[in-house]
Amino acid sequence: QVTELVLDNCRSSNGEIEGLNDSFKELQFLSMANVELTSLAKLPTLSKLRKLELSDNVISGGLEVLAERCPNLTYLNLSGNKIKDLGTVEALQNLKNLKSLDLFNCEITNLEDYRDSIFELLQQITYLDGFDQEDNEAPDSEDDDDEGDEDDDDDENEAGPPGEYEEEDDEDDGASDLGEGEEEEEVGLSYLMKEEIQDEEDDDDYVEGGDEEEEEGVRGEKRKREPEDEGEEEED
């Protein structure tokens, strides 16, 4: 069920990678960069493969194998290999679905009229070394995603000013709310403190008043007792 497989920097043995075989029937993307491949003779049949990365190897020919084993290739990267002449590349004519070919850092790029010759030889391709015949850069799938994100960002930016104002308003509201909250808190604290002070004063007054009443009661009893005491003394 594997659809993508990256084997970069693995070491090939006698032109093959151990474990890579015809069982990868669903494989659509395969990368074998810098694995010291000298040929493609032992490449397994991968009928659904669409992208093949073979950069930085030592491949010098035998490209006709690709049309037999990977007939649905749309992208082929052979940059940094030992490909020197147009005759080697001619074998790619049978890759009818091939749209993008990369031969960057191969000796063939030093040929006079290299680009025009390749486009004439492989008329099915649209991009060579990342550019079409009019030197327009090839779109990348990741760049497409980024562009989509940028479009979304642009849409957001178009509606940005109101949003910014709203955010600023929200911040102002938050600040004003906070200010009111602080004022309320200050008022609440001072109010509570005043209430506590008043309660304490009321308590003191109540206590003092109670003491005075008690003292007056004691004095009244003394006054009552004194005449009684005097009466008893007179009787005696």
TrEMBL record:
Residues 217-227 have a biased composition (Basic and acidic residues). Gene3D superfamilies: Ribonuclease Inhibitor (3.80.10.10). SUPFAM superfamilies: L domain-like (SSF52058). InterPro entries: AN32, Leu-rich_rpt, LRR_dom_sf. Signal peptide: none annotated. GO terms for cellular component: cytoplasm; nucleus. The keyword Transcription does not apply. GO terms for biological process: chromatin organization; regulation of apoptotic process. Residues 131-187, 197-216 have a biased composition (Acidic residues). Residues 130-236 are annotated as: Disordered. It is found in: Cytoplasm; Nucleus. It comes from the Eukaryota. One of its GO terms (molecular function) is histone binding. Its main location: cytoplasm. Keywords: Chaperone, Chromatin regulator, Cytoplasm, Leucine-rich repeat, Nucleus, Repeat. Histone chaperone that specifically mediates the genome-wide removal of histone H2A.Z/H2AZ1 from the nucleosome: removes H2A.Z/H2AZ1 from its normal sites of deposition, especially from enhancer and insulator regions. Not involved in deposition of H2A.Z/H2AZ1 in the nucleosome. May stabilize the evicted H2A.Z/H2AZ1-H2B dimer, thus shifting the equilibrium towards dissociation and the off-chromatin state. Inhibits activity of protein phosphatase 2A (PP2A). Does not inhibit protein phosphatase 1. May play a role in cerebellar development and synaptogenesis. Multifunctional protein that is involved in the regulation of many processes. Belongs to the ANP32 family. This is Acidic leucine-rich nuclear phosphoprotein 32 family member. The gene is Anp32e.
